[in-house]
Specification:
Blueprint lengths: L2 E7 L5 E7 L3 H10 L3 E8 L9 H9 L4 H16 L4 H8 L6 H15 L4 H6 L7 H13 L2 H52 L11 H36 L1 H13 L3 H22 L4 H8 L6 H15 L4 H6 L6 H13 L2 H57 L1
Antiparallel strand pairs: 1-2, 1-3
Helix pairs in contact: 3-4, 3-8, 4-5, 7-8, 8-9, 8-11, 8-16, 9-10, 9-16, 10-11, 11-12, 11-16, 12-13, 15-16
């Protein structure tokens, strides 16, 4: 069914806009008027997955992409409505007006039309891989095939909400150190390009040799003042180079391996990966997805090539009859605690529950590690800033002290 964008006036004369699905433009106008909304402009939206996108629509999708928080909210609302007995199409139709993102509104409308056309919810969602991950689609498919869609949607909502909450906690913990580093960088830049040159210009007329720290400070200040733009190019070039390297197989393998070998970042990356894999694998197994299929799905969300390869090798071992814990242990990447807990879960027949416990354990460890890091970063950054500013002040004061000694 076609989708139309409209601008209209409500009964209070207030301008409103949105999207609506109807068989034709006149039908859309009638549908709006029946809701006491009087259209001013209405046009059909041509935005199907198979249609080639223009440059404008590509830019629109880049800057107005659907956020994970919106997907989480939609999943929770859909689970509530389906559990309350709403038909699936009616539930999605009720969610469309409540969605703030125009792009997500269009997508939900097209998903609803696809279901009305005879497709399953999983098939309709799979047409939008940039919004709904393979994990999301496969869990929905498992729920539809087992007749427990409302339970699966509820678990999906829990899963997405916990992942979103963890991301938000990490962002909030890192916000203050990042802000401090940016402010410190700006302050140092102003010192080196504005304040230091104005002070050191006094020493230009002196007919005596300047101390080595002062000469070094003057040279650094002149470099920053004349070639500050070069630093921006170097930073931009470094970021671009890393992105280009990550697009190659060998380059991504090298960067991911380096990340795991770093002293502080490596263990944190492992804990994050184990948290993500354990929670996702446990949810998939609970919803009737087979072990091999679940491992095939979770390897794509590992976020690290080496960990994904370890999961793939473990999948091969499980296919040959090996236990999951032993198969993962052979990779040597996963922490011993997670391996032992998986083995205990396999022996007790409660692997799904144990995987959730593993996810909770490493989620708490990630939070405590980040809090410890940020707690150490703040005094270290203050100390570094103090040392740099102290060296600048000392370099400026040394010639003044020498001048006083000559006068005396």
């Amino acid at each position: 069914m076609p989708v139309y964008e409209y601008t209209a006036l409500d009964i209070n004369g207030k301008t409103v806009s949105g999207i609506i699905d109807a068989e034709s433009s006149p039908s859309a106008r009638l549908k709006l008027r029946s809701s006491q909304i009087f259209p001013v402009t209405i046009k059909e939206v041509f935005d199907t997955p198979t249609k080639k996108k223009s440059v404008f629509s590509s830019l629109e999708s880049l800057f107005a992409r659907v956020r994970s928080s919106e997907i989480s909210i939609m999943t929770r609302q859909l689970a509530t409505l389906v559990s309350a007995g709403f038909p699936l199409v009616s539930a999605i139709d009720a969610l469309i007006p409540q969605t703030k993102s125009q792009i997500f509104k269009k997508n939900l409308t097209q998903i609803k039309d696809s279901i009305v056309g005879g497709n399953s919810l999983a098939d309709a969602l799979s047409q939008y891989p940039e919004i709904f991950s393979s994990l999301y689609v496969n869990m929905v498919r498992a729920g539809e095939s087992s007749g427990t869609l409302e339970i699966v949607l509820d678990r999906l909502a829990d899963l997405t909400e916990k992942q979103q909450a963890l991301k938000n906690r990490i962002k909030s913990a890192l916000a203050y150190p990042i802000l401090m580093s940016l402010v410190g960088t700006v302050v140092l830049f102003i010192l080196m390009t504005v304040i230091v040159p104005s002070i050191t210009s006094i020493f230009a007329d002196m007919n005596q040799a300047l101390p080595a720290p002062t000469l070094f400070l003057i040279r650094v200040s002149e470099f920053f003042k004349s070639y500050w733009w070069m630093l921006l190019f170097l930073i931009a070039g470094l970021i671009l180079s890393i992105r280009l390297i990550r697009k190659t197989t060998k380059g991504r393998h090298f960067l991911d391996k380096t990340t795991l070998l770093l002293p502080i970042v490596g263990p944190l990356a492992k804990k994050l990966a184990v948290n993500r894999l354990a929670r996702t694998l446990g949810s998939l197994l609970e919803n009737g997805v087979t072990m091999l299929s679940a491992l095939e799905i979770v390897k794509n969300i590992a976020g690290n090539v080496l960990i994904a390869e370890a999961v793939e090798q473990a999948s091969i071992g499980v296919g040959k009859g090996q236990g999951l814990g032993n198969a993962l242990w052979e990779s040597g990447i996963f922490p011993n605690l997670s391996i032992q807990m998986i083995q205990v879960g396999e022996q007790s027949g409660e692997l799904e529950a144990m995987l959730k416990k593993i996810a909770d354990v490493y989620e708490n460890e990630v939070e405590s590690s980040i809090m410890s890091m940020t707690a150490m970063l703040e005094p270290v950054m203050i100390l570094v800033m103090g040392v740099i500013v102290g060296l600048i002040v000392l370099s400026i004061c040394l010639p003044i002290f020498e001048m006083n000694q000559l006068v005396m």
